[in-house]
Amino acid sequence: MRALVLNAETRTAELQYVSLPVQAPNELLVKVEAISLNPIDPLYVLHPLASSGRKIGSDFAGLVVDVGASVPNSAHFKKGVRIAGFLQGACSVNERAGAFSEFLTVPWDLVWIIPNGVSTNEAASVSLVALTAAQAIWYRLQLKAPFHYEPKLALEEHPEWNQGNAFNEQDPKVVNFFIYGASTSVGLYAAQMVRLTAKASGMTIRLFGAASKARWEMLRAQPYAYDYLVDYRDTNWSEQVKKLADDSEIHYAYDCIAEGDTVQRIASTLTRGGKSAIVRSREGGTWKADDLSVEPIYGAVWEGLGEEVQYQGFTVKQSPAARGFSVAFYEWLSVAMGLELKPTPVRLMPGGLEKVVEDGFQLLGAGGMKDRKAKRPEEWMRPVSAEKLVYRV
Ligand SMILES: NC(=O)c1ccc[n+]([C@@H]2O[C@H](COP(=O)([O-])OP(=O)(O)OC[C@H]3O[C@@H](n4cnc5c(N)ncnc54)[C@H](OP(=O)(O)O)[C@@H]3O)[C@@H](O)[C@H]2O)c1
Q: Which of 134, 148, 382, 387 has the most CB within a 10 Å radius?
């Protein structure tokens, strides 16, 4: 089969013929039909952690072609069922295969069945970013989720997440939630999840966002329904948020960028006992903040795969609680995707696997927002804004 394979020496990925993967008893063999790109895919090709020869890439959607012997019948997987999920790709030291290939294998309980009404291209764009947002809102910040899982297990592994106030149904009456980078793919799911929390808990939540003005109309509409928006390009965006929220009354914040001074400035908008989550770690060096009263909660989405992950100079421990959360979340997505949670816009890129590095990776740069400098005249090479890049395989 054809696969995009890392060349760590030249810091690129090449299309090669490799052997077909063989599924373990608890896995599905999948024929990949579409993939979507995440900033971490080019990041770890340009700054490799893995050795040459690893299949790269995370998000996929496709068809089940074979079912492992120990996959329960009750899970309803059979040949031809449409599923979506993500793999870790070359984003770690650990030897694991990525998704940018014609076939792959994946544990049966870490995928979701694509409901009718959601296209395969849309489905390919969901799994990694939606789980990232779900982990932040429901698992790490511990807001009420619209499905059942065991929040206590998470707190046993991370007692520090319980510090500060847990703002709940009664107190305060209105909760203010601020999403910085509201037009990122992660942010688009986070806003929907905050809205679902309000519905599931009865809380009144006012949603504040920072995004470029060009995206305000979209963000004010359903399913995001932001109450207040500021432009991240305004130098005083954090002061504007504080003013809109009656001077420092943000209870929860999610920084979907975490570069430069965003973490520090978001902390300045938080009320006493307020909590924040972030998408990039302190160790990654994209942001610095010296005088934070509460450390923001960082987590890597990989934790949800339930395996130990060595990356970015530190190790993400194996977490049964995080894996359990992913399983519950994907089970819910098999029903809720398209109904309760809407897929975000997709840009279908021309070409297939052979164009991913040449076009898609150029658009995403080296992972950081400031590194996105592609200036090409083709219509599909315009900057990425509130959308996912999808390729057919
Ligand atoms: N921790 C994890 O496990 C994890 C998982 C997934 C992603 N991430 C990280 O999360 C970040 C977001 O990923 P993504 O895939 O959601 O990104 P994305 O959709 O590709 O982000 C593009 C959007 O970012 C907005 N943007 C660019 N610079 C900004 C700034 N300075 N302030 C506010 N918004 C800005 C742009 O808005 P405009 O077009 O309006 O200018 C654009 O809509 C990335 O750094 C990614 O590596 C982390």
A: 134
Taking only the tens place, the pLDDT of each residue in 278-295 is 999 998 889 999 888 889
The predicted-structure confidence for 328-379, as pLDDT tens digits, reads as follows: 999 999 999 999 999 999 999 999 999 999 999 999 998 789 878 878 999 9
Specify the pLDDT at position 171: 63
Task: Look at ligand 1, atom 47, and give the residue with the nearest C-alpha.
Answer: 39
Give me the CATH topology for the region 2-126+343-392. Quinone Oxidoreductase; Chain A, domain 1 (3.90.180)
CATH 3.90.180.10 domain position(s) in the chain: 2-126+343-392
Mean pLDDT of each 10-residue bin along the chain, 393 residues long: 97 97 97 97 91 95 97 93 94 90 98 98 98 97 94 90 62 87 98 96 94 98 98 97 89 96 95 92 90 90 92 84 98 98 98 97 89 88 96 98
Q: Give CATH for domain 130-306.
A: 3.40.50.720
Pocket test for ligand 1, best of 131, 256, 301 (most atoms within 8 A of CB): 256
**How confident is the model at residue 313, as a pLDDT?**
75
Pocket test for ligand 1, best of 369, 372, 385, 387 (most atoms within 8 A of CB): 369
Instruction: Give ranges for CATH 3.40.50.720 in the chain.
Output: 130-306
CB of 181 shorter than 6 A to ligand 1 = yes
Three-state SS string across the chain, please?
CEEEEEECCCCEEEEEECCCCCCCCCEEEEEEEEEECCCHHHHHHHCCCCCCCCECCCEEEEEEEEECCCCCHHHCCCCCCEEEEECCCCCCCCCCCCCCECEEEEEHHHCEECCCCCCHHHHHCCHHHHHHHHHHHHHHCCCCCCCCCCHHHHHHHCHHHHCCCCCCCCCCCEEEEEEECCCCHHHHHHHHHHHHHHHHHCCEEEEEEECCHHHHHHHHCCCCCCCEEECCCCCCHHHHHHHHCCCCCEEEEEECCCCECHHHHHHCCEEEEEEEEECCCCCCCCECCCCCCCCCEECCHHHHHCCCEEECCEEECCCHHHHHHHHHHHHHHHHHECCCECCCCEEECCCCHHHHHHHHHHHHCCCCHHHCCCCCCCHHHCCCCCCEEEEEC
The pLDDT tens digits of the residues spanning 246-261 come to: 877 899 999 999 999 9
Q: What spacing in Å lies between the alpha carbon of 296 and ligand 1's midpoint?
A: 17
